[in-house]
Design brief:
The protein is α+β, with helices and mostly antiparallel strands. The protein folds into two domains: 36 residues; 136 residues, Nucleoside Triphosphate Pyrophosphohydrolase, CATH 3.90.79. The strands form three sheets. Strands 4, 7, 8, 9 and 10 form a five-stranded mixed β-sheet that branches. A three-stranded antiparallel β-sheet has the order 1-2-3, with no helix packed on it. Strand 5 and strand 6 form a beta hairpin. Helix 2 packs across helix 3. The N and C termini lie far apart (49 Å).
C-alpha cells in the first residue's frame, strides 16, 4: 500500500458479466487495516460525438432510455470495441446513429463517466461539416434526429434541459472549438 493508493486489493472476482459491462467485487484492505468489499462496474471506454453541420446546426438525438423510461436528448455515443481506435469508433457511431459523415474531426476532451462506481473513460470528439444520410441503427435503438443551432444546444446543456450528463458535458467541452459558429471564446 502506498500513500497514492490507500487500498490494497486482496482479491477480485466477477459477479456478473455481459458484452456491454461487468460487475467486479474487490476485497480491499484500507490504510487503517480495515477490510471492505467494493463493487466496480467495468466498462470499456466510449466515445461521445458532438456533430455540427456546415451551416451551424448541432445534430442531436432523442433516444428512448428504458432504465429511466424517458426520451433523452443526447449526442451520438457508443463503446470503443477491442481492436478499434477511438476516432474510427466515433466515425462509426456517427454513421450508425444519424447516418452522418464528418469533413473534420477534433478531439475535445476526455473524462471519467462514473468514477465512484466504475472505470469508463469518455473520449469527446467534435465532428464538423457533418452531412446526414440514412442511419444504420441497431434494432434496439429508438432514435429521432434533432437539428438545433449551436447556440441553442449550448443553452440547453447549460440550463439542464439535456438530462444525459455525459452528453451535456460533451457539448460544453466542445464550446471552445465552436468559434466559427458564433459561440465560445473564439467567436
Amino acid at each position: 500500500m502506498s500513500a497514492s493508493r490507500p487500498y490494497l486489493t486482496l482479491d477480485s472476482r466477477y459477479v456478473w458479466q455481459s458484452r456491454w459491462y461487468s460487475l467486479r467485487q474487490d476485497h480491499l484492505r484500507a490504510a487503517d487495516g480495515s477490510e471492505i468489499t467494493y463493487t466496480v462496474v467495468e466498462k470499456p471506454g466510449a466515445v461521445w460525438i458532438v456533430p455540427v453541420t456546415a451551416d451551424g446546426q448541432m445534430v442531436l438525438i432523442r433516444q428512448y432510455r428504458h432504465p429511466v423510461e424517458a426520451w433523452c436528448l443526447e449526442v451520438p455515443a457508443g463503446n470503443v470495441e477491442p481492436g478499434h481506435d477511438e476516432l474510427s469508433m466515433a466515425a462509426r457511431e456517427l454513421r450508425e446513429e444519424v447516418g452522418g459523415t464528418a469533413g473534420r474531426w477534433a478531439k475535445a476532451a476526455e473524462f471519467f463517466t462514473m468514477n465512484g462506481i466504475g472505470n469508463e473513460i469518455a473520449q469527446v470528439y467534435l465532428a464538423q461539416d457533418v452531412t446526414l444520410g440514412a442511419p444504420q441503427r441497431e434494432p434496439t435503438e429508438y432514435i429521432d434526429v434533432e437539428l438545433l443551432p449551436v447556440a441553442e444546444a449550448l443553452r440547453l446543456a447549460r440550463a439542464g434541459a439535456i438530462k444525459d450528463g455525459p452528453s451535456a458535458l460533451a457539448i460544453l467541452l466542445c464550446e471552445p472549438l465552436l468559434g466559427e459558429y458564433g459561440v465560445g471564446p473564439n467567436a
